[in-house]
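In the present case, backbone shapes were mapped to integers, as reproduced here:
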Amino acid sequence: MSLVPLVLRRLVPNAYRPVLANRVFRRLILGFAVSYLGDGMSFVAVAWLAIELAPQATAGLWVGGAVAAYTLPGVVGALAFGRRLRRRPAKRLLLADNVVRAVFLGAVPLAWLAGVLTLPVYLGLLAVSSLLHAWGSAGKYTLLAELLPDGQRLAANSLVSSLGFAATIAGPAIAGVLVAYVSSALVLGLDALTYVFLAVLVVRTRLPASGRVSPVDQASARGGLALLREYPELLGLLTLTWFFNLLYGPVEVALPLHVTADLHAPGMLLGLYWMLFGIGALLGGLTVGALRRLPLWPVTVAIVVVWGCCLLPFGFDVPTAVTVACFTLGGAVYGPFVALSVTLMQEKSPPQDLAAMLAARSAALLTAAPLGTALGGPLTTALGPRATLGGSGLATVALGTVACVLLLARRRNQTGESRKSSVRPAAARRPPVAPRS
């Protein structure tokens, strides 16, 4: 027996072995890993190229516009093309997104080399490149659901999400070095090539195309929102998650401008921030199994408060090492939030309504972070990067505090109701006697 497979079997947890034994899944996860690496590089390059192209006085507005253009049109695509795309096989959805991303992101370095890359052209290319990204994400997870049995889907989703966190470690670090020596436009060209790689791999791999599992569509999302209104606890969870993501949005705009305008540092520092954030998020995400044994609601609210506290030092003139350490800790805190909030939804939702409620959650959250990013541009221009980061942290702490107060009030009401029911007279609890005929 070969030594390498034996070592891998000992290192890989039992839950992941059946998933990794699937040859098609192994090929797909390789493509996802390469694509995520490109996205990690774009995390730095999108904002940095906007800084290179924009006048200094309006850099905040253009950075906010660029980051929003890289994400927000996905919401428009999710709604505008729902009737045409929701019945398409998952493989076609994934391929369509990859092709659009590759073509229009690849046009950025070509326009830069030709000397015609203006800010409006740049934002237009970013916007079109992201138009099908929500459908590509839906196709990816639908494809995994079609490919694997129910018992293996959680492990597969965990591996894919961990790859995304891992890419935020390597991608920004690579991009931070590249933008210091070559244009950010060429970094976006590398991201386009990673989508080409994934598209070629998907085409050359035999994948299920039955469409047994339908992607999230508008009808199910609307039905889920109606159901959520009947469950105040779940509606409160969705509200908390939406505002949490909204308040995170300005960070993606203000942080690169904080590096350039406040610290007068090169792009390598921005890459370091996001790399260490990714390391923290990866380590935090791996603790989800342990956190599941804790009260999920209190831990989820605590994550919101602690993340806000990690941003507060950015609002003061503190050493850069302090904010780097806080951002790393913030990544560790932020990492488990998605898994915990989804687990809460799974535990509290009626089984027959879970799919519709998760669909409503996905549709609602598509708007939160991009909207926060779009607002981050004007806020950064008006207040400055440092105040925007600190203000985002302060608002997030306030959000978590309000959620904590409401949670405590709800617990007290439940305790009071249980005490009242326990002291009711025995006669009141006695079942009614059926009348004699």
About this structure: Residues 433-437 have pLDDT under 50 and may be disordered. DSSP finds 22 helices and no strands in the chain.
